[in-house]
Protein 1
Amino acid sequence: MMRSDDYCAVSWFTRAGSLAKEPCYRLPVLRNMLVLCLVLFSFNLLGCSSSTPVYQQQSTAGLPRSILVLPPVNHSVEVSAPYTFLSTITQPLADRGYYVFPVAMVDRLMRENGMHTAHQMHQIPLDKLYDHTGADTVLYATINDWGQKYQVIQSSTVVSVGLRLVRANDGAVIWQGQARATNNQNSGNGNGLAGLLIGAVVDQVAGSLVDKTYVLSRQANNNAIRSLQAGPLLIEYYQTASK
């Protein structure tokens, strides 16, 4: 039976017309909760610190610091694919620790110098790119597949881009990757053949109004760039933060 000193407050809500007392937490309970919080906090500190030593001991000597992204060669039928790709590639590269030349500036520079297609831009000698921009590396991209695919009862959105990072001073390929993501959508939700056909039509109309490739392109680029070696800016950030 609970003693009178086990109560610390009187509730202002009533039950069956009478005031009810609420039990307060006693010291042993509070002490156990505090110990549990300290243990969880210690695990968080260990988890955070375990990811940084690899950067703290790593030298940035010889690592490229900047990346120039050329407009991609487009092998798909989607005219807007190169622009969507370029709008989603800068962030993951910067997060990985590299300075990325503004893609709009690079595109304008190329066009002002008579290079109006991605094929022409990809043929520019690396030494010329380095002399005019000072970029340590150049990222070449090829769009292999892009856009929404419609079948009888389902649709899918596909993004597939080949990536190749080349060192500007000697032409060595220092990284290759594949940015790919797919979103399959089944229409109809089990409402029979009529529901499947109606759902397919709705998906096609909605797909013409909303571009789903932007989200997929961002997802594909983020996943692909994770395998790229950490750049000097990211390494130096962790080394500075650890001091």
Note: The beta strands are 7-15, 18-23, 66-69, 73-74, 99-100, 137-150, 154-167, 173-186.
Protein 2
Amino acid sequence: MIGFKKIVQILSIIAIFHQFLPAQGKKMQIFSTNGTVITLPVAYIDSINFVDIIAPIEQGIVTDIDNNTYATVKIGDQWWMAENLRVTHYRNGDPIPKVTDNTEWDNLTTGAYCYYNNIDSNGVIYGALYNKYAAFNSRNIAPAGWHHATDDDWNKLIDNLGLSGFYGQEGLALKSTTGWLYNGNGIDCFGFNALPTGIRASHIGFNLIGNATIFYSNSLYSIWALNSSHEIIQMHDMPDNNGYSIRCVKD
């Protein structure tokens, strides 16, 4: 876990700035070594200072009913898990069945989980993938004192990232610095460490590892997605019987 993160990466930055031309309509582009390009209208820029801005990341831990320990980070006034949930029991101790067969998974009407490609070690790295019956179960899947993130939680996170200078680039700020295909790595400024976990798609099977991570919202019928080709985080309608990741927020 990264304890501190540079907000501005200044390794081999090339600034294109038309300083001798009228500012109207002109833009400055900053190119970083990880392939990220940040574009700003020149009219918005008062001055340019090359400084090393270090922002402390408040960190903690939380433990689930299985005694799994998760890193946590504070973003704005929210405490988020910095890892995907991998619990295999509801909060009351009832087990969540592990289902590996695709046909059985597609026809479930009760809670279940799996690991990507049914490989247990993927659960350690990426967490578990849950179906909606586990995600929205009344027995509660989150650790005590925490809850499965809602639409309001995700929207507040986006607002907090925007206030920190990442408006329109929230996904870039949340994605891990490695593992994403097609030059889709993020800069993980806040320690959220969103890995490209992939999903389990109904009637298709495991898909999109390296390309996407999709989180359930605890507000029914919506999911929140990060992918390699976008710097934003997107909300979508929730398809039936897919397997997605879960992040939790402190009550």
Note: The first strand starts at residue 4 and ends at 6.
